[in-house]
Amino acid sequence: MKKIAVLTSGGDAPGMNACIRATVRRALNRGLSISGIRKGYEGLIDNDFVELKSSDVSNIIQRGGTILHTARSERFFTLEGRGRAAANLEEHEVEGLVVIGGDGSFRGADALATEYSIPVVGVPATIDNDLWGTDLTIGFDTAVNTALDAIDKVRDTAAAHDRLFIVEVMGRSAGFIALEVGVGAGAEAVLIPETPTDLEKVCAKVKDRVSRGRTSNILVVAEGDEAGNAFEIARKIEDMSGLKSRITVLGHVQRGGSPTTTDRVLASKLGWAAVDALLDGASPCMIGEISSSITHIPLRDSWTKRKQLDPLLITLSENL
Ligand code: F6P
């Protein structure tokens, strides 16, 4: 293998730049040349390649977002799109691809590897932490710290006004962020898609606390909870119990900002290991870290197997 390429795809995650940096420097260190592909699979289809040198990735380890830009590509889900992508990789003499992203990006990478025998290695990067085969995905730690900081501030105003707040965090189909920040912020209830949400029970708990003088209450809800989004839940709670609330939707603020040390170090390890995996012929696989050891799993396992929430965290969120 003489030349590889790297791209970031799907929702951006803090630490993607640190991962690009490690991937580029490990590739050069192993005697490979490396191209960056801009805007994820969109750039792969549109032939948007740029040669990367070591100095191109200087001074980016601390920056959120991704210097390569990212996209959610509908076209890559078509045979025609992947055909153009494969042709562009061949034109640039790229013999292996590192894909930094989440499950949607890995599905695309797996299809490309299967249909065109192109070696691919996935690096898990999504604030949702919803990929099997790694304890943490790049970006999760920064996102939960950002959300926690915001909820601590909400707690101040909730306490000052004796109010009920409903704070919505990201997580379209997974409650990892909500559970982590809910426990960390001492929320009165955490509503997540993985466990049934009983709003009658939540209302009873809040009313009981208010009757005991605990007049500030915070509910953390994952955006994918089956009871609805924060606005729908607020309306249902008011209809059921008369409790009025204020709503804070944290949204995309959770995706930005300078990555934490944990994310920078994880991203550096995984970017490094991804290049080694390509050279070792481990494609199609995902690099991860479990109990401080680097792991390789078949790429498909990352989304076909379901990562479980920590049951102890669920117990804590219900009882503390
Ligand atoms: O996958 C990461 C994520 O931030 C989810 O938590 C969220 O539901 C989604 O992306 C939002 O995507 P977009 O920025 O495309 O609206």
Short note summarizing the structure:
The chain is α/β, with parallel strands linked by helices and 320 residues long. The chain has eleven helices and eleven strands. It has two domains: 3-139 and 259-304, Rossmann fold (3-Layer(aba) Sandwich); 141-256, 3-Layer(aba) Sandwich (Rossmann fold).
Tell me what the structure shows.
- It is built from 11 helices and 11 strands.
- It is of the alpha/beta class and 320 residues long.
- It folds into 2 domains: 3-139 and 259-304, Rossmann fold (3-Layer(aba) Sandwich); 141-256, Rossmann fold (3-Layer(aba) Sandwich), CATH 3.40.50.
- The longest helix is centred in the middle third of the chain and has 22 residues, at 140-161.
- The mean pLDDT is 97.
- The structure holds 6-O-phosphono-beta-D-fructofuranose (F6P).
- Residues 11, 72, 102, 126-128, 170-172, 223, 255 line the site of 6-O-phosphono-beta-D-fructofuranose (F6P).
Main beta-sheet annotation:
7 strands, mixed
Tally of helical runs: 11
Oligomeric form? single chain
Structural class: alpha/beta
Q: Topology of this structure?
A:
Layout: E1 3-8, H1 16-29, E2 33-37, H2 40-45, E3 49-51, H3 79-91, E4 97-101, H4 103-116, E5 120-124, H5 140-161, E6 164-169, H6 176-185, E7 189-191, H7 199-211, E8 217-222, H8 230-241, E9 245-249, H9 261-279, E10 285-290, E11 293-298, H10 301-304, H11 311-319
Parallel strand pairs: 1-2, 1-4, 4-5, 5-10, 6-8, 6-9, 7-8
Antiparallel strand pairs: 2-3, 10-11
Helix pairs in contact: 1-9, 3-4, 5-6, 6-11, 7-8
Bound molecules: 6-O-phosphono-beta-D-fructofuranose (F6P).
